[in-house]
Amino acid sequence: MNDVNEKLSGLKTILHKAQAYCAYQERCTQEVVQKLRDWKVDENRIPKIIEQLTAENFINDVRFTETFVRSKFKLKKWGKNKVAYELRLKKIPDPIISQSLQAIDDQEYRATLQHLKGQKSKETKEKDLFKKKQKIIRFLVSRGFEMELVMEIFKRNNER
Known about the structure:
The protein has helices at 2-24, 29-38, 46-55, 61-74, 80-89, 94-101, 106-123, 129-142, 147-156.
């Protein structure tokens, strides 16, 4: 009997700790599962805990994805490809990723790309224009912007 009470109080403690973890900052399901594993929670208990946290709205992958997309674009100036890649690493389903990426305003996205291009162009000391352009393109693509869009920005500015 004592063993059963101990297991129940342990589950409540873990659940409370997980709630606090989720309340501190927006988390996705995968992050919470990993944290529970880090805490050495029994693998059989993890689905029940996740289910409880989801039911109580401590975990919401759609809300997490929307926040992630917004913050990575606005604060870190990441392109859609990089944001999507990072979300896939967190095991967020593609339909949720696509839906959240559509929330990025196209004009703002292009303006950010143009700003980063100008900023990188000023920073790059390369004298050879072809090499300079290649460095800027590589930088923008590594930031997650689509190659077609990057090339369109260069063409619009009459740069070959």
